[in-house]
Design goal:
Layout lengths: L1 H29 L5 E7 L7 E2 L2 E6 L3 E6 L5 E5 L4 E6 L5 E5 L5 E6 L12 E9 L15 H4 L21 H6 L6 H4 L1 H4 L4 H9 L9 H13 L4 H14 L1 H4 L33 H4 L4 H10 L15 H16 L2
Parallel strand pairs: 1-4, 3-9
Antiparallel strand pairs: 1-2, 4-7, 5-6, 8-9
Helix pairs in contact: 6-7, 7-12, 8-12, 11-12
Length: 333
């Protein structure tokens, strides 16, 4: 009997007391005098996601985040603060020291696929004031996004265009034509306001384009849409797409990702629209959408479609690079 009690005691120490002591030791080591320490638990989205999901820090004041997970592996990105944590493993503590330089709102999100509601794992860090009673410089006023400047309703139903190329346009073939681009295609700020179908129609009416066949002109349009994006920007967009988009839209952009199978898509608002995530290879839909519209979807998400917003996680440069990357599914790289 004594042996049984002894064995039970050993099991209790190993299974319960030792992990508790280890966690307490890790917590003690992570404490720092004069530094704000915040414990953040990353749970499955259906169990609450990040807790807490709203943090308050002071500009110029150091802080320490202690990240733990009780269930599966999570990740963390805080783009505005330059922080990327690849893994938060269950039972381990990940410590981050940071000193936000300026007031503002800094979004954070999980970066590891942890379930169908992974995209709900979002949060925000609100940074106010300046440590030591200093005066904070005013945050610059952000310029309204292009879709707002153009007055676009990004929730309006946009059915398939009937101006279609006979074959899939190719940016590589368009570059090989060595033809000067019309002004609306050459200037990025003007091109972003146009849908490719509009650009094709306008270019078709220009005297300088009469010698080109419709196929050549579509190739020229494809080249115009991809020519300005630098390779390193596309590489960054490719990584972001793999991290944030492929699970729903599929690795090839066909809207066939496993996580998006049960999403309603635009069909929730119009039964005539296709269900599920957008297919970026569908010429009839993509050629009728301007870059400004696509950026708007990224910025704000698709209301009611299951599409989350990425405006708080991507810089302006990353947004336009992502739009160019999405165009590449139809126009080639």
């Amino acid at each position: 009997m004594k042996r049984e009690w002894f064995a039970l005691s050993v099991v209790l120490v190993v299974a319960v007391l030792f992990p508790a002591m280890l966690f307490g030791y890790q917590a003690w080591r992570s404490r720092a005098p004069g530094m704000q320490v915040i414990d953040v638990v990353a749970r499955l989205p259906e169990e609450g996601g990040f807790v807490p999901d709203r943090l308050r820090l002071v500009a110029g004041e150091p802080a320490r985040l202690r990240l733990t997970s009780p269930d599966v592996v999570h990740g963390l990105t805080i783009p505005g603060l330059g922080i990327d944590i690849e893994t938060i493993e269950p039972g381990r503590v990940v410590t981050i020291d940071l000193t936000p330089a300026a007031p503002g709102r800094y979004a954070f999100a999980c970066t590891r696929w942890c379930g169908v509601d992974h995209w709900r794992m979002r949060g925000v860090i609100e940074v106010t004031g300046v440590a030591g009673g200093g005066t904070a410089s005013a945050m610059p006023t952000a310029e309204p996004p292009l879709y707002q400047q153009l007055g676009l309703d990004i929730d309006a139903m946009r059915h398939e265009t009937h101006v279609m190329p006979e074959v899939q346009p190719s940016a590589a073939r368009g570059a090989a034509l060595e033809v000067s681009l019309p002004p609306d295609l050459a200037a990025a700020n003007r091109r972003r306001a146009l849908a490719p179908t509009d650009a094709f129609a306008q270019s078709r009416a220009e005297a300088a384009m009469t010698s080109l066949s419709d196929r050549d002109l579509w190739d020229l349009v494809a080249w115009a849409w991809l020519r300005d994006t630098q390779p390193e920007a596309l590489e960054r967009a490719e990584r972001l797409y793999a991290r944030d988009c492929a699970a729903c839209h599929g690795p090839e952009g066909r809207g066939d990702g496993s996580a998006g199978q049960d999403l309603p898509g635009m069909q929730k608002m119009d039964p005539a629209m296709p269900a599920g995530p957008a297919d970026f290879t569908a010429a009839a839909r993509m050629l009728g959408a301007s870059d400004a519209l696509l950026q708007g979807k990224l910025l704000r998400g698709g209301m009611g479609t299951g599409m989350p917003e990425f405006g708080s996680l991507y810089t302006s440069e990353e947004q336009w690079a992502m739009v160019a990357y999405l165009r590449g599914f139809l126009f080639g790289r």
